[in-house]
Each structure stands twice: as C-alpha cells, then as structure tokens.
Design a protein that fits this description.
This protein is mostly helical. Helices cover about 65% and strands about 0% of the residues.
Length: about 150
C-alpha cells in the first residue's frame, strides 16, 4: 500500500488539526490555577516566616520600663538607611537584637534584604552590634570605620 503525496499532505493536515483541538481542550486553565495556588501558598509561607522572625526578635526590643528602644542601626558598617528600615519592619530595633541574632535569622534577613548568603557574617554585623551595645564606640570606630 503506497500513499500518494496528496494523501500524505491530507494526513499531516488532519494530524495538525487534531493536535490544535487537543491542546485547546486539554484544560490548560486547570494548570494555571494550580500555579496561582502554589504562588499564594509560597507568599503565605514567606509571611509566616517573617512573622516568626519578628516574634522571636521582638521581646528584647522593650526596655525594663516598657519603652521601646530604637538604636541607630546605620552606625553598623554595611547597613544603609533602607536596610535599617527593613530591619525595623522585621522587628529589629536595637543593637542587642542584632547581636543576639541566630544563623537562621541571619539567613532570613539576608534574603529579605536581597543580599547574597554570608554577607552579614562577612561584614560582622553581630560583632559590631555587640560593641555598640556595650558602649565600646571607640573600639567599633577603630575596627570598622577607620579601616575603610
């Protein structure tokens, strides 16, 4: 059984029409909805993580008299005014909170600030914060400001 060139062309056209109809009826909208659902779940996970970070950081931001402490976080080398605002939104308001940060909180802040992993450790934010918290401003300036 041999096919002529016209029969082959008609067969290819029929296959192409079948492919187009199959794609139209395949339920692509279902996959779009699943993708949107996954995006929403991811956003909720990020919000939950940020709330957890804020909840674990918040208790040390209140002094004994009940007033909220607010240190100038921009004194830490590597923290810009925008970074300080983002840190305040995340619940970090004092040097004590920065100095007491865990590695997990550090990684979360790096992601939140859009920094590459390890920047906070490399710039020694925790050490700088501990020096400023204990009042060793001259030591901080000598180690981190004058060496620029």
């Amino acid at each position: 059984m041999a096919f002529t060139l016209n029969e082959i062309a008609l067969l290819l056209i029929a296959l192409l029409i079948g492919l187009v109809l199959g794609l139209m009826m395949s339920g692509r909208g279902k996959y779009k909805q699943l993708w949107r659902d996954e995006q929403l779940a991811h956003r909720q996970t990020i919000k939950d993580r940020d709330a957890h970070v804020a909840a674990t950081a918040a208790p040390s931001a209140v002094r004994a008299d009940g007033a909220r402490t607010q240190d100038d976080l921009t004194r830490i080398r590597g923290i810009s005014a925008g970074d300080a605002a983002a840190l305040n939104e995340a619940g970090y308001h004092s040097y004590a909170q920065i100095g007491a940060m865990t590695d997990e909180q550090q990684a979360t802040l790096e992601a939140r600030l859009g920094r590459e992993p390890g920047v906070i450790a490399r710039e020694e934010w925790r050490t700088q914060a501990r020096l400023l918290e204990t009042g060793k401003v001259r030591e901080h300036e000598r180690r981190y400001i004058e060496t620029r």
